[in-house]
């Protein structure tokens, strides 16, 4: 691929090739990957510009004309529901002189009308009105620029590339049976919180891909979740810890057998580093009552999702490269999307979803629903900021990952570097 095709300058490409070539597997990345504005621009083009990015959920656009917007680098994208209830995504740019069509983060429209000169587009992106353009003007040549959009059981992904990776079909095939019992399209957003982390987006993802840090930093999260679910080193554990790890393993075995017998897929599937549209899933047991990711481990909403009747279904975890993770329980869903803002700042957007008929204050309490992940997100933001501060210093050098608890971090780094190599080959 030529420099013209990538849009990157020769110096950036040369620096990337050198950094990739000398990266030692099993070690963290060198500091420029976390601090360099030039590498950030490469990330936005080669990662966020060419892979499937999780951005929203279907309940955000339930009716024709409903829309949400998302900003990825310099790109603004509008995602909307058309008159036939299909999903559409377009660059949020008028084809006249480039004005931004939609200004807010969400809303509803009959048509998309440019606020500058009132060029008007229907919900399929066709230009239907453009005054004073003359008899020879062909409106059919000036429709909105389309963006690939795909819903996976209610999770909305977009891809900015001219040709989107086709292996999302495999993600869809594998994941839809796991996600479908939770019936995300028939939920509503009970809470949504944006958090700005003072760190590079890769540090946010690396932090998410391990629980090495959990027992020392997440007192709320480790009430419902077992840190052992992300690995442990048996030779360095005392008898009590070994007994707890053995209890967890037994709980995984018995829970998976019970859930699978009820038609609830639970087994681990891991494609985090062997395909372009990387993903991983596994249904993990919840401690104590085993019901939900709450401080008392009981359901936060009395109204269960879909047609579920069993409250104790653990938590289905679903990770996607490069920017999301999700937890599906019997009573609610928590989704996370990571949006890079600049080389050292990242937006983490968290949404909590409950059954669309659940009543706030009667079936669920927002504070109880959100308490575990609200606390955990703030704690993680602090840890990411610590890591970013260290990466800026001359003393920083790549350190070794734990082979027992940071395997998924290594898979993320491998996936990331593979995408860069493909982009500058």
TrEMBL record:
Mind telling me which CDD domains this protein's record contains?
Answer: RHO_alpha_C_GbcA-like, Rieske_RO_Alpha_N
SUPFAM superfamilies cross-referenced by the UniProt entry: Bet v1-like, ISP domain
Q: Tell me if Oxidoreductase is a UniProt keyword of this record.
A: yes
UniProt protein name? Aromatic ring-hydroxylating dioxygenase subunit alpha
Please list the GO terms describing molecular function.
2 iron, 2 sulfur cluster binding; dioxygenase activity; iron ion binding
Keywords, ordered alphabetically: 2Fe-2S, Dioxygenase, Iron, Iron-sulfur, Metal-binding, NAD, Oxidoreductase
Q: Which organism is it from?
A: Acidisoma silvae
PANTHER family referenced in this protein's UniProt entry, alphabetically: CHOLINE MONOOXYGENASE, CHLOROPLASTIC
The UniProt record lists the Rieske domain at: 52-158
* UniProt cross-references to InterPro entries, sorted A to Z: ARHD_Rieske_2Fe_2S (IPR015881), Rieske_2Fe-2S (IPR017941), Rieske_2Fe-2S_sf (IPR036922), Ring_hydroxy_dOase_asu_C_dom (IPR015879), Rng_hydr_dOase-A (IPR001663)
Q: Does the keyword Oxidoreductase apply?
A: yes
Cofactors required? Fe cation
Where on the tree of life does the source sit, at the highest rank? Bacteria
